[in-house]
Design brief:
Layout (H helix, E strand, L loop, with lengths): L1 H42 L9 E8 L7 E5 L4 E5 L3 E5 L7 H32 L6 H35 L5 E3 L8 H29 L1
Antiparallel strand pairs: 1-4, 1-5, 2-3
Helix pairs in contact: 1-2, 2-3, 3-4
Length: 215
Amino acid sequence: MKKRLNLLCACVLIGLLLSTSTVISLMVQAVSAGFKAGYESVEKGKELNISDYKIVCTIPSDLFAETGSVTNLKNSSQASIKPIISLIEAPTTGSSLSRTANGITTLISVLASIFCLIQFFYLIRNINRGDIFSWKNVKFLRKLGVSLILLFICSFTTIMIGNYEAAQVLELKGCEYSNIFAFSEPTFILGFIALLVAEVFAVGLKMKEEQDLTI
């Protein structure tokens, strides 16, 4: 029984890591590219030219209109694409408020991800010790659920800001900006599942305490 439980917990952990792997990969690539560009600018005297990309979500408004194309390296032809979630080069206009908001959401996302892993580790540790139905685990599950929902809010905010900024300077043919795809983020449903399990544990513990008092 414990082996099966540990296996399921490991699967949940892997799923959680995979769900955030894309964001982490983009962050690592952005930091690496920025460091490389800065190094070449200082050491080799090259002009610092960093493109400003936005994460945007779009939905096709006309399936027959050609929104964009990519190069097919097999035959050097151009293949039409319909972007859903994309990185689009779009210069930022106006104040630096959006940059500040993006920086804050990125920092919160990193901290929330670390906090999630810590709470999950404590939960698994208690389960392996045979301490399953306890108020400590209820607290861990509640904290895990709240931090997962916070991760979703940060992701949704990033996409919403990206869509807004891109819409100020870009109008895409055959597509329109949409924030609804942000709800496909697995952290959204995982957070509520964790809160639901926590409440089930809490109800069971309260019923057990009431039964102990009546004996």
